[in-house]
Amino acid sequence: MQVLRLLSWWWYLTTQIVIGSWNVAVAAWRPKPMAGPAIVEYPMRATTDFEIAMFASAITITPGTLVLGVCPGDETRGPSVFVHSLFDSERASVIDGLAELEWHLLHALRRHGMPKGER
After folding, report:
1. Of 106, 117, 108, whose CA–CA distance to 45 is shortest?
2. E strand or H helix at 80, and its extent?
3. Higher-confidence residue: 69 or 87?
């Protein structure tokens, strides 16, 4: 079952890379900007170093997004990541996209998956 979740993750990430590449190509040829950039802090559900590294890599490999830094967190707050989004100035939309990306990753990596609604 975990193999299917890993294949699903691979397909999801590949789709996001293709969509991001298309958006960057369209933006390069448009005379007017598509949208304004935004920087957001996203509190992660990822907890292990491997999960955090995979999440940060997935964000950075997707065209139009870039990880600026990772905050390890402490006893009261978990880790968070700072992300620059090139095409989406709506911070809520960026956070929703990051939550979906993280869910797909954690669902694939964790032994028993991850419930869809867990935040």
Report:
1. 106
2. strand 80-85
3. 69
Give the span between the Cα atoms of 70 and 87, in whole angstroms. Answer: 21
- Give the three-state DSSP class for 54: helix
| CA–CA separation, 101 and 56 (whole Å) | 10
Q: Which residue type occupies 45?
A: R
Instruction: Tell me which DSSP letter residue 57 carries.
Output: H
The residue whose two tokens read 């990541």 is 81
Domain-wise residue ranges, the chain: 2-109
Mean pLDDT over each residue of the chain, to the nearest integer:
88
pTM of the full predicted structure?
0.87
Tell me, what's the pLDDT at 118? 56
